[in-house]
Design goal:
The chain has 547 residues and is α+β, with helices and mostly antiparallel strands. It contains 15 helices and 12 strands. Helix 2 runs parallel beside helix 4.
């Protein structure tokens, strides 16, 4: 509509300009030379500058016809005249036509140059606005390490600049999705925003958001149709919400940092008539990269902070664990030196000093093992190990502590021998750690059981107890260094190294270890699998290279 109106106005301008030139030529007939072409050149120039090529050509033709009809002898006739004056006017008319064409070409070039300059200015202004938007987003992202808060602010900022509707969803450690923030440009749709605060399920994986999460690639839907909405939802309620939001165009951009997809940003147009294009997608991806970097940095900072706290707790525990046996040694040594102890108390003093020294030696050995694990220098002494005898030796070590707490300590197995390739001392260390923890965390009168079964290709050892159990949030980290087993309500001594060392030793034996617990007061269950010893040496695990 606007284009046809401009075109009509341009042609009308050509008629008006030629009419004005004709009137001027008639009025100045006696002053100007024959042909009076200067006014018509002005008409062509005006038509070319303000109307374009078509109106300028029309003005040229009209000017030539008017000059021929009004100013060329015989006047007011298109009949030819061979007089010298007529030939001169005809020549000038040809010159006029060439000048008019030149004017049209120059006017067209000027118009194109003006249009190009205007586009360049518009693009520069748009680039400036986009740069300013990204700068504001970066400032918001750098304002806090609480990425829930910063991403919520970024969503609001995006609604003010890039979208009518925006949401951000983050991947949780358990694989679920959590919607952090939703914002809409229309405050009247606050109720819809509240309904959309829960991450919508997508079991069929057809929503662009799910595709972006799975592939790590952005999804641009320039035009959203009704059938697109219907195919992306799982129920009528969700479809109704999306229809009320009136999606017209959308972009879904993953938040990717160090090759890991952390979440997604969703932008949608619901109010305006504009549609997203590749330029908008580039801007959205730039924003998503900045958000992903901020989230990743916040998580790394949190992990580093937690590591420092764990280190501080470990050092405090270490000092306590080393100080306690040292205090016992110093106290009993002082009493022995005084000579005031009778025979029975002397034996008790020597026994306490010996047990305290062994406890310190075990703590130091655990620390050395952790250092060896970290440096890759924990070595095995390969051999053939009978698991039953190794388990029985481990049970004998903790038997006294179990009897002191009146625990039922059972060994359950239906095999006489069960041979596995490995290091007997290190496997006994593993079983001793598990049994020691079970005895430590099981209250008086409880039960601790170790079971051994041998299959065709692997042996399975299970240690379970009726003790304090393991909190659900601790299970994923239970084999990490400095993590204490048990629930928040039950904490015992120790450095929290035994399970980390045990996992590494089991893995060096090409086995697996896993922990299970129903929670507080429900006991714990540790399951170890080890490959059996085989006669074919080529099929046996290479423990030397594993070390």
């Amino acid at each position: 509509m606007i284009r046809s109106l401009n075109t009509a106005a341009g042609y009308a301008l050509a008629f008006a300009a030629v009419g004005a030139a004709l009137a001027a030529g008639i009025l100045m007939r006696d002053v100007l030379e024959p042909g009076v072409f200067p006014p018509f050149l002005v008409a062509v120039t005006v038509s070319a500058l303000y109307g374009g090529v078509g109106p300028a050509m029309l003005a040229t033709v009209l000017s030539m016809l008017a000059s021929y009809y009004v100013f060329l002898e015989p006047l007011y006739s298109f009949a030819a005249n061979d007089s010298a004056l007529s030939r001169l006017v005809s020549f000038r008319m040809g010159t006029f036509f060439a000048a008019a064409v030149l004017i049209i070409v120059m006017g067209t070039a000027r118009s194109r140059a003006i249009a190009t300059a205007r586009r360049a200015r518009a693009e520069t202004e748009e680039a400036r606005r986009r740069t300013q938007f990204l700068a504001e987003a970066s400032e918001v992202l750098g304002a806090s390490l609480d990425y829930d808060e910063t991403l919520t602010s970024v969503v609001r900022l995006a609604v003010a600049f890039l979208a009518d509707w925006c949401s951000v969803d983050m991947c949780e450690s358990n694989g679920s999705m959590r919607r952090i923030a939703v914002s809409h440009a229309d405050p009247a749709k606050a109720a819809l925003v509240k309904r959309a605060m829960t991450y919508p399920p997508d079991p069929l994986g057809r929503h662009p958001r799910t595709i972006a999460l799975r592939t790590g690639r952005s999804q641009l839907v320039a035009e959203i149709r009704a059938e697109d909405l219907a195919s992306a939802v799982i129920d009528q309620e969700q479809l109704e919400v999306m229809r009320q939001l009136a999606y017209r165009s959308a972009m879904v951009v993953p938040l990717v940092a160090r090759g890991e997809t952390l979440g997604v940003l969703t932008f949608a147009i619901t109010e305006s008539d504009r549609r997203y294009d590749a330029t908008d997608l580039v801007l959205a991806e730039d924003l998503a990269r900045r958000c992903a970097l901020a989230v990743d940095n916040a998580r790394l900072y949190g992990a580093a902070h937690e590591a420092n706290r764990t280190k501080d707790r470990f050092l405090a525990t270490l000092s306590h664990e080393l100080r306690s046996p040292l205090n016992a040694v110093v106290t009993w040594a002082h009493l022995l030196r005084s000579g005031r102890l009778d025979e029975a108390r002397t034996r008790r003093a020597l026994t306490t000093i010996e047990s305290s020294a062994r406890l310190q030696a075990r703590l130091i050995e655990d620390l050395l093992d952790v250092a060896r694990v970290s440096s890759g220098k924990l070595h095995l002494e390969p051999g053939s190990v009978d698991l039953r005898s190794t388990i029985e030796a481990s049970v004998d070590v903790v038997r006294a502590a179990a009897d002191e707490k009146r625990l039922t300590l059972d060994v359950v197995t239906d095999v006489e021998r069960c041979q596995v390739p490995g290091d007997a001392t290190r496997l006994q260390q593993v079983f001793g750690n598990l049994l020691g923890n079970a005895v430590k965390f099981t209250p008086e009168g409880g039960t601790v059981t170790i079971e051994l079964t041998c299959g065709d290709t692997e042996a399975t050892v299970v240690v379970h107890d009726s003790g304090a159990g393991i909190a659900p949030d601790q299970l994923p980290r239970i084999f990490e260094p400095f993590q204490q087993a048990g629930t928040a309500s039950v904490r015992k001594g120790g450095l929290g190294l035994g399970l980390a060392i045990s996992r590494h030793l089991v893995e060096l034996h090409h086995g697996t270890i896993r922990a299970q617990s129903a929670g507080d007061g429900q006991g714990a269950r540790f399951t170890i699998t080890l490959p059996l010893d085989v006669t074919d040496s080529s099929a046996a695990p290479d423990l030397a290279s594993a070390s």
